[in-house]
C-alpha cells in the first residue's frame, strides 16, 4: 500500500515551485556534447552531417577476365583497373587490397589467432590448431602499365602497394593491369566469405566466389588510404566504379553475378531467354532453369566452356556463383517506376524452401528497404544458396537455410532462412549504396542493416519472430560482465561478442530512438535523410550522428555517448514513493479522515493478547478513577473548529478555494539510475478504479543529476501502483526494481532428462503420423473409410 501523508495548505503549489527544483549533481555529465569527440567539421563534411561543398571521392573502374577450373577448384584471372584521382592530392603510389591472402600459408590472421588446448577436442577444433596444407592466397603473376612495362609493387599481407611511374595529379586517371591465380577453399572445411561446396551424391561442385580479384583500397578525405589489414572480421571498404566481368566456366554451368548479363544469346537457350522475358512481368517467380533440368545437368560433364559477361555501373564490388546444379527463378518488380529483376539460384537440396520463398523475400526486401531509405536503383537483386551462410555483395548475396533431406524443416529453419535473405539483400543499401567503412566500423553496415531488417521482417508477417531489434532481446547481452563487452564505437577487429555488439545493440538503439525517444515521424524522416545524403558516398559515424540530430531537430549526444561510446546498461529503479494530499482545513473532513486512519491501524500483538487475558482494567473496576480525558475525543469536530475554518476560507481567493477543495493526490517518487545509462523515464500508473495512464518523461530529467532524481506526479484519482517501462522499451536489465509497491519479476526453469535425443521437427512428426494412418487397414490419409 502507498502511505498517505498530508501537505500543509501553504504548499499547495509545491509541484511547480522553483525552490524545490533538484540542484545536487552526481559528479558526472552524461549530457556533455560530443563536440570534442567527433571530428571537426570542414568543407568536406559539414556540422549538419551532410557532405560539404568540397566533398570528393575516388573512382575505380574494372575490366576483368576470370576463369574457373572445375577440376582443380582454382581461379585464374587478369584485370585492367582505371583509377581516377578526384582528390585534391597528388598520389605517388596506389594501395590495392589482396583480401584473399587471409588464406595465404603465412596469413597474419592465422598468426594472430588466440586459442587454447582443451582436455577434450573435436577433430574440427584440432584442424584449427594444426597448420593446414591448403594455400588459398593470391599468386600475383604480373603488375603492369596497361599494355606496357612492369610496375614495382610490394605485398604487405593483405595489402599491395603499386608504385606509379609518375605522380597522379588531381583529375587525372591511370590504368594498370594485374594477372593472378589462387586456389578456392572448401567452404565447409575452411569457413570464409567465399568458397565451394562438394556434393558427394552427384559429385558436383557449387561455387560462391568473391574477393576473387585485387581491389582498390579507399583513399578518403578523413583518413587518406584505408590500409588496415583484413584479419577476417572487419569487412570491405571499397570505391565506386563501373565493372565489366567475363567469367569462363564449364559449358553446362549456370553463372549468376553482380550486374546484367551482356551476352544472353551466347550462354542461354532460346527457352531460357523466353522464360526470362516472361519473368519480367510475372506476379510470382518463373523458373528459368527447372529442377528437372538442373538434375539432368548434374549427371553430365561438359568438356567445353562458356564465357558469361556481366556489366554493372556505379557499384563498389562484384561477386558471382557458378554450378551445373543451379535451379534459377526470377520475378520482375517495379521500384519507383524502375524495373528490378529479383532472382534466386539454388541447388535441389534447397527445395522446397528456396523455390517457395527466396525470390519473394528478395522482392519484399527491395520494396521495404526502399520505403525506409532510398529507392533501389540497380537492375537486379539476387539470392544464391550454397555453402556460405550469409554474405553480401552489390546486387548478389550468398545465403544459407537448407531443409532436411526429406524436404521437411523446422520453423526456426524457415524463419532463419527468410531472415538471412532479408539481411543480406538489405546490405545492398548498407553498405553497398550508403558506402560506410566496414573495415573500421562494422556497426555502420551490420547494425543499421539489422535495424531495417527488423522493420522488413515485421512487414513480412504479423508478429514475425525477429531475433534482433526489440529492446527486450538485448537484455541478456547488456547484463553480461562489462569485461566481456566493448563499446559499439570499437574497431571491427577488436569487438567482443561481435553479433550482439555490431548487429543487435545498434539495431536496438535505433529502434529505441524510433519508438520511444524521437517517435516514428521524426525518426523516419531523419533516417531517410541520412540515406539520401550519403547514397553512393562514404559516410563516417559523425555524419550519421549529426544527420540524425540535424534532421530530427533533437540533441541526441547523450544517447550516442551512452549507447555507442560506453558499456553502461539501462537499469532504472523506483527507490520509494510518498503519497501526499492537501490538508483541506475542513475539520469535518479532516477529522473523519483521521478517525478512519486511526481505526485502520493494526492492533499490536500485546494489545490483542491483553484483550483476551485482561478481562477488566482497574478503571473498569473503579469508575471513580476516570476523569475528563477518559471521555474526551480529541478528533471530534467542535463549533470552534468550524468557525476557525470559515474564517480561514473567507481570506482565500476563489482560485485558492478551488485548489483547496480539488482533492488532488501528490506522489513523490525517488528514482535511481543503477545501470549508469540515462534513459527516458516511462511510468505506468494504475488507479484505484483499475484504469491506467502512461507518462513518458524525456531522458533530460537526469541532466542535473545522472544518478538520482525525485519527481512529483499529481493525479485526481488515487494510484495503487507504479511501474517503470511497462512495455519493455528501454532494455532495462533488472525489472525487479521497476515497480512500487515492489513485485517479484517472473522467471522459469526447465527440467530435462540427462540424455536427450534429437526430436523430429513438427513437419516430420506430421508426416510420420500420416504414414502410420496409411499403414493401418481400413484407413486412409484423409481419415476413416
Helical segment count = 20
Query: Hey, roughly how much beta strand do the residues contain?
Result: 25-35%
CATH evolutionary superfamily of the domain at 59-435: tricorn interacting facor f3 domain
Helix content, binned percent? 25-40%
Distance between the termini: 65 Å
Question: Which regions have little confidence, pLDDT < 50, spanning 5+ residues?
Answer: 8-19, 780-785
Task: Describe the strand arrangement of the main beta sheet, using strand numbers.
Answer: 5-8-3-2-14-18-16
Describe the protein in words:
The chain is built from 20 helices and 33 strands. The C terminus is likely disordered. With 785 residues, it is an alpha+beta fold. The longest helix is centred in the middle third of the chain and has 20 residues. A 7-stranded mixed β-sheet has the order 5-8-3-2-14-18-16. The two termini are 65 Å apart. Among the domains are: 377 residues, tricorn interacting facor f3 domain (Immunoglobulin-like, Sandwich), CATH 2.60.40; 83 residues; 75 residues, no CATH class.
Amino acid at each position: 500500500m502507498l502511505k498517505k501523508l498530508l501537505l500543509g495548505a501553504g504548499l499547495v503549489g509545491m509541484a511547480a515551485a522553483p525552490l524545490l527544483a533538484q540542484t545536487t549533481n552526481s559528479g558526472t555529465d552524461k549530457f556533455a556534447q560530443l563536440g570534442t569527440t567527433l571530428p571537426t567539421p570542414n568543407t568536406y563534411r559539414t556540422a549538419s552531417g551532410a557532405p560539404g561543398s568540397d566533398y570528393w571521392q575516388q573512382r575505380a573502374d574494372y575490366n576483368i577476365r576470370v576463369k574457373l577450373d572445375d577440376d582443380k577448384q582454382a581461379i585464374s584471372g587478369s584485370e585492367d583497373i582505371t583509377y581516377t584521382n578526384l582528390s585534391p592530392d597528388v598520389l605517388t603510389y596506389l594501395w590495392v587490397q589482396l583480401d584473399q591472402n587471409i588464406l595465404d600459408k603465412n596469413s597474419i590472421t592465422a598468426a594472430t589467432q588466440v586459442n587454447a588446448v582443451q582436455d577434450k577436442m573435436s577433430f574440427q577444433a584440432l584442424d584449427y590448431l594444426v597448420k593446414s596444407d591448403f594455400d588459398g592466397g593470391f599468386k600475383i603473376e604480373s603488375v603492369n602499365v596497361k599494355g606496357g612495362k612492369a610496375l614495382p609493387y610490394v605485398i604487405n599481407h593483405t595489402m599491395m602497394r603499386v608504385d606509379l611511374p609518375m605522380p597522379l595529379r588531381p583529375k587525372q586517371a591511370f590504368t594498370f593491369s594485374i594477372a593472378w591465380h589462387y586456389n578456392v577453399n572448401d567452404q565447409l572445411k575452411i569457413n570464409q566469405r567465399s568458397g565451394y561446396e562438394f556434393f558427394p551424391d552427384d559429385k558436383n561442385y557449387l561455387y560462391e566466389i568473391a574477393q576473387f580479384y585485387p581491389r582498390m583500397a579507399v583513399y578518403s578525405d578523413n583518413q587518406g588510404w584505408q590500409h588496415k589489414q583484413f584479419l577476417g572480421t572487419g569487412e570491405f571498404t571499397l570505391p565506386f566504379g563501373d565493372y565489366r566481368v567475363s567469367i569462363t566456366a564449364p559449358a553446362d554451368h549456370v553463372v549468376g553475378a553482380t550486374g546484367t548479363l551482356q551476352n544472353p544469346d551466347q550462354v542461354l537457350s532460346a527457352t531460357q531467354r523466353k522464360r526470362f522475358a516472361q519473368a519480367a512481368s510475372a506476379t510470382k517467380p518463373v523458373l528459368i532453369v527447372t529442377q528437372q533440368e538442373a538434375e539432368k545437368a548434374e549427371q553430365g560433364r561438359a568438356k567445353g566452356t562458356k564465357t558469361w559477361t556481366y556489366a554493372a555501373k556505379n557499384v563498389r564490388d562484384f561477386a558471382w556463383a557458378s554450378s551445373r546444379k543451379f535451379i534459377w527463378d526470377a520475378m520482375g518488380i517495379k521500384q519507383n517506376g524502375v524495373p528490378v529483376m529479383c532472382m534466386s539460384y539454388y541447388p535441389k537440396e534447397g527445395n522446397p524452401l528456396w523455390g517457395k520463398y527466396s525470390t519473394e523475400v528478395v522482392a519484399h526486401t527491395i520494396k521495404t528497404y526502399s520505403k525506409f531509405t532510398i529507392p533501389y536503383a540497380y537492375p537486379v537483386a539476387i539470392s544464391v544458396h550454397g555453402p556460405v551462410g550469409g554474405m553480401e555483395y552489390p546486387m548478389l548475396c550468398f545465403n544459407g537455410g537448407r531443409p532436411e533431406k526429406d524436404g521437411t524443416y523446422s520453423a526456426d529453419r524457415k524463419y532463419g532462412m527468410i531472415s538471412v535473405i532479408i539481411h543480406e539483400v538489405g546490405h545492398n543499401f548498407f553498405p553497398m549504396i550508403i558506402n560506410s567503412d566496414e573495415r573500421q566500423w562494422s556497426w555502420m553496415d551490420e547494425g543499421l542493416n539489422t535495424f531495417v531488417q527488423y522493420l522488413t521482417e515485421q512487414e513480412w508477417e504479423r508478429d514475425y519472430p525477429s531475433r534482433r531489434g526489440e529492446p527486450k532481446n538485448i537484455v541478456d547481452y547488456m547484463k553480461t560482465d562489462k569485461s566481456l563487452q566493448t563499446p559499439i564505437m570499437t574497431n571491427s577487429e577488436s569487438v567482443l561478442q561481435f553479433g550482439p555488439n555490431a548487429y543487435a545493440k545498434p539495431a536496438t538503439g535505433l529502434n529505441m530512438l524510433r519508438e520511444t525517444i524521437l517517435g516514428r515521424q521524426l525518426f523516419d524522416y531523419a533516417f531517410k535523410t541520412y540515406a539520401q545524403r550519403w547514397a553512393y558516398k562514404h559516410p563516417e559515424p559523425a555524419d550519421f550522428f549529426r544527420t540524425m540530430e540535424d534532421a530530427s531537430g533533437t540533441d541526441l549526444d547523450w544517447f550516442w555517448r551512452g549507447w555507442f561510446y560506453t558499456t553502461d546498461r539501462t537499469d532504472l529503479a523506483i527507490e520509494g514513493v510518498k503519497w501526499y494530499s492537501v490538508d483541506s482545513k475542513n475539520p469535518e473532513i479532516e477529522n473523519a479522515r483521521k478517525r478512519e486512519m486511526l481505526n485502520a491501524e493494526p492492533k499490536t500483538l500485546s494489545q490483542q493478547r491483553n484483550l483476551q487475558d485482561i478481562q477488566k482494567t482497574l478503571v473498569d473496576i473503579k469508575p471513580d478513577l476516570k476523569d475528563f480525558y477518559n471521555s474526551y475525543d480529541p478528533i471530534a469536530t467542535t463549533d470552534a473548529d468550524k468557525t476557525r475554518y470559515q474564517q480561514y476560507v473567507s481570506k482565500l481567493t476563489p482560485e485558492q478555494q478551488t485548489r483547496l477543495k480539488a482533492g488532488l493526490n501528490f506522489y513523490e517518487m525517488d528514482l535511481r539510475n543503477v545501470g549508469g545509462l540515462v534513459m527516458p523515464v516511462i511510468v505506468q500508473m494504475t488507479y484505484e478504479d483499475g484504469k491506467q495512464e502512461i507518462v513518458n518523461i524525456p531522458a533530460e530529467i537526469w541532466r542535473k543529476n545522472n544518478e538520482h532524481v525525485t519527481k512529483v506526479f499529481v493525479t485526481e484519482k488515487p494510484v495503487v501502483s507504479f511501474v517503470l517501462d511497462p512495455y519493455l522499451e528501454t532494455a532495462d536489465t533488472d525489472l525487479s526494481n521497476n515497480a512500487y509497491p515492489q513485485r517479484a519479476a517472473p522467471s522459469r526453469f526447465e527440467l530435462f532428462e540427462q540424455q536427450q535425443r534429437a526430436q523430429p521437427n513438427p513437419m516430420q512428426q506430421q508426416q510420420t503420423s500420416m504414414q502410420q494412418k496409411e499403414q493401418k487397414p481400413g484407413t486412409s490419409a484423409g481419415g476413416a473409410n
